[in-house]
Amino acid sequence: MVVEEQNLENGGSVHVVKGESYFRNVVWGPVRWLKMLARELHWSFVFGVVSLYGINQGLGGSLGRVATEYYMKDVQKVQPSESQALTAITKIPWIIKPIWGILTDVLPMFGFHRRPYFILAGVLGVVSLLFISIHSNLHLYLALFWMTISSAAMAIADVTIDACTAYNSIKHPSLASDMQSLCSLSSSIGALVGYFMSGILVHLVGPKGVFGLLTFPFALVSVVGVVFSESHVPGFSYKQVNQKFADAGKAMWRTMKCSDVWRPSLYMYISLALSLNIHEGLFYWFTDAKDGPLFAQETVGFILSIGSIGSILGATLYQLVLKDHPFRGLCLWTQLLYALSGMLDLILVLRLNLKFGLPDYLFIVVDEVVSQMIGRLKWMPLLVLTSKLCPHGIEGTFFALLMSIDNAGVMTSSWLGGVLLHVLKVTRTEFGNLWLAVLLRNVMRVSPLFVLFLVPKGDQNTFKLPDEIMGEDSDGEGDEKEETRNLELASLVQSVDRR
């Protein structure tokens, strides 16, 4: 702590405790930021983001990821390529996110568009995970079915909070980056805690026991549905649902034909699909290979938790330094760094780190931190761009459509990675060609740069779709009745018809 004497204009002086002032800024800065968001956007929205992104997806998702990997490897005893292909199937509910989005936008339950879907998602998640945790000798495909149901529950909750985020991003465009930062920081901090606990919990209660514990984050999702602040829609005519579904599909199709929308959407799919996912091969090598690190369960969880610090650093760096930079420039440098960071895996698999005197434990921690940080930096501008591509009136539906395209890219990446592992004969006991799989993955990560021209050059804070696409009241004006009307698609459908 440093005490300095500063002279005042009236001839007096005052002692300034610089260390204490710095401490206050560090501690109270995030608190003031959260209070500002809660004041501008309502506290229930901030609570929902923290609960869903931080606890359900961050903490619960990280626990579920590690539990699933050990469940497939040790309980179901499948090959790494098979595990990668099967777990990718559980992402299908994320591919059909537009269906959940249309439901939240056009089909209110008991007069609400969002709250009942939070409650429904929580119930589905609790039931599916309880079924996996309490049944012994569960058949592989039946277990996969219940995993897919729990994934659907998380997807429904995710698309609902995404709709709220996209809606607020349009109503408060100056806070769009802050909202995405809140989402990412919540997810990263939750993942940090979840990964830290995952290995210990898997060791103590096994992967099935962890599935049982994951019912609590889903129960919290239902709590969000109870307390969430939302305008009531009185007198909704359910006879109009079919027409509203048709209108939603028509509006999405006409909006997607806009070059300002389909071009960045295509880039996001390509950048994800061509970044081949071979994680299962690396996971089996980390834990089972005789010439590998042979990490224990607790070690795996601890390493992944330290890696989450990199994700937090990436989100923080974006918020402080990069959120005002143009989209295309950010995508260029983050994609290059993403390809280069993959070379750390190659060094580890070839055991070159040992020749440099770097132990496996230390090197893989550095690898995880760097990879997670760059991955977050790569993802953040795409998230902001996605939120700004949503037309006014079908925020949930269209954000879900764009995110489903991204999830299709992730699933394609997993399947292509599984095919690569199978072709190179990487199995539970044979890892001789794993280095080649890592090298090919790194080369493929560079390929999206050839279609970088699809990304807009615009600044992240000023970029917006044409007014005829956004709708009449995209400037954020209008009373509560007008907001309800927008949520029911009328303004967008009318503006599209005029074109």
UniProtKB/TrEMBL annotation:
Keywords: Membrane, Transmembrane, Transmembrane helix, Transport. InterPro entries: BT1, FBT, MFS_trans_sf. The keyword Membrane applies. The chain crosses the membrane at residues 117-134, 140-161, 182-204, 210-229, 266-287, 299-318, 330-352. It holds the Pfam family BT1. The keyword Lipid biosynthesis does not apply. Its main location: membrane. One of its GO terms (cellular component) is membrane. It is found in: Membrane. It is a multi-pass membrane protein. PANTHER family: FOLATE-BIOPTERIN TRANSPORTER 1, CHLOROPLASTIC, FOLATE-BIOPTERIN TRANSPORTER 2-RELATED. Belongs to the major facilitator superfamily. Folate-biopterin transporter (TC 2.A.71) family. NCBIfam families: fbt. This is Folate-biopterin transporter 2. It comes from Eutrema salsugineum.
